[in-house]
Specification:
The chain is mainly beta. It is 5% helix and 54% strand. It is found in: Cell outer membrane.
């Protein structure tokens, strides 16, 4: 039956997913082996994944904790790869070193970045300056070699976290030394790529190292680490010829390619534009350094200070032009004539982006009594430099001609939190407050030489701030066999100091200020856990959450020549997203086998999304607007097995079915009842690990997502550039512990060289060689 329900073309996956549904029943004595502490056991089995480390965030609803056991079977080019087999979860990673890796939970679109709260050691690295692929979390401040565990919670069921947890929460915990230690890892990367007229092998490498110290009889510890990463990613876009008007002929050329898939996806019988070039490969260079200082006093006082620096350079100066003139010379732009007609070739520009960013945070925790404790943390993420240089054309790029500069700064965010907790007779209480401030300032300039900012001329500016103040409280009450957790969160949000400027009539700069906005939200939470048996837990979680607009969604307007706002360019009354959520979880621990089933439901009023539809003035625009109601529900099945039939054979496998639709959208009624874009009906992930011998581990991984809609109206469905396609990837890895300190590994992702797309292409077959040393 499962096979027949899969999307077309997915039948071969049934065999790979079968372990989820064919695991045998447990032996009759399983319950008798359970721990006497049934409540502790229930908490343990609530979390999917590793079992030997406590989760670092509140496990309400489906919760996943990943550690070394899972990491051993993953080819991790970057830190976000360590989550690639997590249930009903994905990261929009297009190539190694991609800085636009937006995480997605369940029915979250791959550009809804503001619906995920991501932290490193409890410090916020989510970029809530906007809500799109350009505002992904700052994964680059962490290297894969320094991660102790990944903790993932699905949904906004804990009162402690903001409404940005509407999709879910991710916390990355880095290693804290318990003795003198050191590590070093080197990697070699390669991707064979063949698409349209591009046939290349792209290569990269990384080197990561660090050391840690801890006082033998003292409270202090220190960890210092760094990573250098260099990679060329495959082209992200392909350029099509535009039909030219007029009878004048162009340069005779050959080499243009027609993609039949684009013609079919657009409309049967409609010819696609010939493709004449691929965007330049992204030459990525990243440098990361981190200092972590810890204090663990005998009095119970715990402190931590973290400073992380990340440098990122993206150079794209080699567009792959397919056209050749009669002399065999490359043609990258201009008026051209092919056997199919006369066209204009344009778009193959050159670019270079340089960013320097800094995370700094401090956290303190202290006991107030035998039953009470307090915590506080304060952090900031500073975008010290963000310069994006782009040529005006291919010829300008080649000849150091005219271009533009997008310069961001001062841009940063600040977050702070305090918490008090007390274990009283019959109830555990916790309460706290939090605050954040997000600030952006982006200026665009025109340049005479696109590579340099000398003589830059002002073109436009966008700036603004948002701040959020919150108080929250939770009470956890054990009522054997049920434990209730009641919580509530109140947030006060404000958007202010926003404005936009441009060159107006007569060449003079003009600007306008946005009105200050303010809103509040009360968000109740309820979770009930029922310890049906010592190794069986049923949990029901209910919540309301509010996600306020970001700077980028609010300040999106444009100005008329006289400096007044174009009333159709933005929505001055953009409303916050408000969700109602439910999650039912049943987990059963059978000793070597653990099964988890999860059913979820979410209804969101005023979903903020960029689409083409009627604005507040009844004019059709393509901008951020509110969708009246969206809804999603689904089922997730998760299997974890250890020593499955053979000692050393472990399996983590999961399947999810998602129904996510637009219920009501007055701005674009044609979207109503349609599956929300980029949300597949099916997701399947699995990782099978087998220890062939004590030093050798082999692993096979699988990732599958059925083909979703590309647009809000369900009209764009394709399997080529510009569409979101089905994804199927088989991965493999071999780990060899040469000695207690030296490890070698080799791996390949996407063994079958499946060509998948998320508008841009996903990687084709990719190889990884790695050597790691640890003291």
């Amino acid at each position: 039956m499962f096979r027949t329900m899969l999307a077309p073309g997915a039948a071969p996956l049934a065999l790979a997913a079968a372990p989820i549904f064919t695991l045998v029943s447990p032996p009759a004595h399983a319950e008798s082996a359970a721990s006497a502490d049934s409540e502790r056991k229930a908490v343990d089995i609530l979390v999917v994944g590793q079992r030997d480390a406590p989760i670092s965030i509140e496990p309400r609803g489906l919760s996943v904790s990943l550690g070394d056991e899972q990491f051993a079977g993953i080819n991790a080019q970057n830190v976000e790869d360590l989550m690639k087999y997590a249930p009903d979860f994905f990261v929009r990673k297009r190539y190694a070193g991609d800085s636009n890796g937006v995480p997605g939970f369940r029915g979250t679109h791959s550009t809804q970045s503001a619906r995920t709260l991501v932290m490193v050691d409890g410090f916020t690295v989510s970029n809530f300056l906007g809500n799109s692929f350009n505002f992904s979390p700052k994964w680059g401040v962490v290297g894969p070699g320094e991660v102790r565990q990944f903790d993932v919670v699905y949904g906004p069921y804990a009162a402690r976290y903001s409404g940005n947890s509407m999709g879910g929460i991710v916390n990355i915990t880095t290693r804290s030394p318990d003795r003198a230690e050191a590590f070093a890892t080197v990697q070699g990367l390669a991707e064979t790529y063949d698409q349209f007229g591009t046939h290349e092998t792209y290569r990269g490498y990384s080197a990561e190292a660090g050391f840690g110290l801890r006082q033998r009889e003292g409270p202090w510890s220190l960890r210092l680490s760094g990573r250098h990463f260099r990679n060329d990613g495959q082209p992200m876009s392909f350029y099509g010829l535009t039909p030219a008007s007029g009878p004048a002929p162009g340069t005779p050329v050959t080499g243009a390619l027609v993609d039949p898939g684009q013609a079919i996806a657009n409309a049967p019988g409609l010819a696609a534009s010939p493709i004449f070039a691929a965007q330049s490969p992204a030459a990525i260079t990243q440098d990361q350094a981190k200092l972590r200082l810890g204090y663990d006093g005998a009095s119970g006082v715990i402190g931590e200070a973290l400073v992380a620096y990340w440098h990122n350079r993206d150079s794209q100066t080699a567009p792959d032009c397919y056209l050749r003139d009669t002399a065999g010379q490359r043609v990258c732009e201009g008026r051209v004539t092919t056997p199919g007609g006369t066209y204009t070739a344009s778009g193959a520009k050159w670019s270079r982006t340089v960013r320097d960013e800094l995370l700094a945070g401090i956290r303190l925790a202290a006991p107030l009594s035998d039953t009470a404790r307090a915590e506080a943390n304060l952090s900031t993420y500073q975008i010290l430099r963000s310069d994006g240089f782009t040529s005006a054309s291919y010829a300008a790029g080649q000849a150091d001609g005219a271009g533009t500069l997008a310069r961001q700064g001062p841009t940063a965010w600040y977050t702070g939190e305090i918490m008090l907790a007390a274990d009283l007779p019959g109830v555990a209480l916790s309460a706290g407050g939090s605050a954040n401030l997000y600030r952006t300032d982006l200026i665009n300039y025109t340049l005479a030489n696109w590579r340099r900012d000398a003589g830059k001329a002002f073109a436009s500016r966008t700036y603004g701030k948002t701040r959020d103040l919150a108080v929250w409280a939770e009470a956890r009450v054990p009522l054997d066999p049920v434990t209730l957790t009641l919580g509530a969160r109140f947030e006060d949000w404000r958007a202010f100091d926003g404005g936009i400027g441009r060159i107006g009539t007569g060449g003079r700069p003009v600007q306008a200020r946005y009105a200050t906005r303010r809103a509040t939200a009360f968000q109740p939470k309820l979770s009930a856990e029922w310890a049906i048996a010592p190794a069986t837990l049923l949990q029901l979680s209910l919540a309301k959450a509010t996600r306020f607009p970001t700077v980028g969604e609010l300040y999106q307007g444009s100005l008329n020549g006289d400096g007044s706002f174009n009333p159709d360019s933005f929505d001055p009354n953009l409303k916050p997203e408000r969700s109602t959520d439910a999650n039912l979880l049943l987990a059963r621990d059978f000793g070597p086998v653990k099964l988890t089933g999860s059913a979820f439901w979410q209804r969101v009023r005023n979903t903020i999304f960029a689409f083409t539809g009627f604005n507040q003035n009844g004019v059709t625009t393509a901008s951020f607007k509110n969708i009246d109601v969206t809804r999603q529900y689904g089922i997730e099945l998760i299997a974890e097995a250890r020593d499955l039939g053979l000692p050393g054979l472990d399996l983590d496998a999961n399947a999810a079915w998602i129904d996510s639709i637009t219920v009501r959208n007055a701005s674009a009624p044609a979207a109503q009842g349609v599956q929300f874009p980029r949300i597949p009906r099916w997701r399947l992930n699995a990782n099978l690990r087998y220890r062939v011998s004590e030093p050798v581990l082999v692993a096979i991984g699988m990732r599958y997502a059925s083909r979703p809609n590309t647009d809000l109206f369900g009209l764009q469905r394709g399997d080529t550039f510009g569409y979101t396609s089905e994804l199927f990837a088989l991965d493999a890895k071999v780990n060899w512990a040469v000695t207690d300190r030296l490890r070698l590994s080799a791996g390949v992702d996407n063994i079958t060289n499946n060509r998948a797309w998320v508008y841009h292409p996903y990687p084709q077959r990719s190889f990884l060689l790695e050597a790691g040393w640890r003291l």
